[in-house]
Structure prediction request, 125 residues.
Amino acid sequence: MKFLRRNSTMISKLGKRRKSKQVWRKPKGRDNKMREMKRGYPAIVKVGYSSARDLRGTYEGKETVLVYTTKELGRVDVKTQVAIFGKIGKKNKIELAKIAREKKITVINLNVKKFLDKVSKEKKK
Prediction:
């Protein structure tokens, strides 16, 4: 569940393209409907919302691995792990995406097929 700051969708300075301003802040106003947990208003952070400890940091039951190089991607086990591409350049990302497609490694933060199709179209032009 994603907890957003109160009125972040309504106020433009907290809006859609300003993710750093949308971080959670506890509603503290006297008549605040969110603080009073009125029906129809967004949920506020409470103790019962966290996931089970053994599932935290996993993706569909698999361990996540941060990948920067082809060597690190080669170590990823397809059955028990999924990859997350780190902050890398386009050239390396293309190389990693090709290897991930060959080895059928799931990449969480990149749609490999769509990315490689887009790159090949750009090359043709």
